[in-house]
Amino acid sequence: MNRVQKMACFNLFVAAVSLGMSAGAAVIIGLIGGIQKAWLGFSFMGLCGLIALGPIIFRKDASEDKVPFDERDLLIQKKASLAGYNASYGFFVAVCMVIWSVVGMKGTIPVLVLPLMVCGGLCTLMFTQSLTLLVQYKRGRKGEVQ
After folding, report:
1. 143 is a domain residue
2. Whether residues 84 and 45 fall in one domain
3. Helices marked H in the chain
4. CA 46 → CA 18, 50, 61, 73, 116, distances in Å?
5. pLDDT tens sequence across 84-117
6. Model-level pTM?
7. Last residue of a domain, one of 14, 37, 60
8. pLDDT score at 94
9. Residue 2 is part of which domain span?
10. Is the domain of 91 the same as that of 50?
11. How far apart are CA 104 and CA 110, in angstroms?
């Protein structure tokens, strides 16, 4: 497993843990404090900031003599990035259309919705990019002897 795959696994793990903790906290706070305060449970999504530690934790070894990144790896990275950005754009379009259909032409949306859209788009991008990267590496190994 190369450095990029390790970072993708780390990203998926951090996203799953933070989403699970957020959902659990939202349910518990919703049961205790009411549905109006349940959104406070999603403050655990701040744990997704740990994704920024991936490049630090999985930094390159200068002692290795092999090539760390070749053309195939670059192509996989480009395809995964494109899939992630397409998914995040789809997320933004879907959320905007749902909000527009619920609120209507003359309605207003709460300001809280805008940062939630940005965070949701970022989570969609990171999740899709990491998952696509791992799937492409897995497909590429079918003919190789391990």
Report:
1. yes
2. no
3. 3-33, 54-57, 71-103, 113-140
4. 8, 8, 30, 30, 12
5. 999 999 999 999 999 999 998 888 988 888 888 8
6. 0.75
7. 60
8. 96
9. 1-60
10. no
11. 14
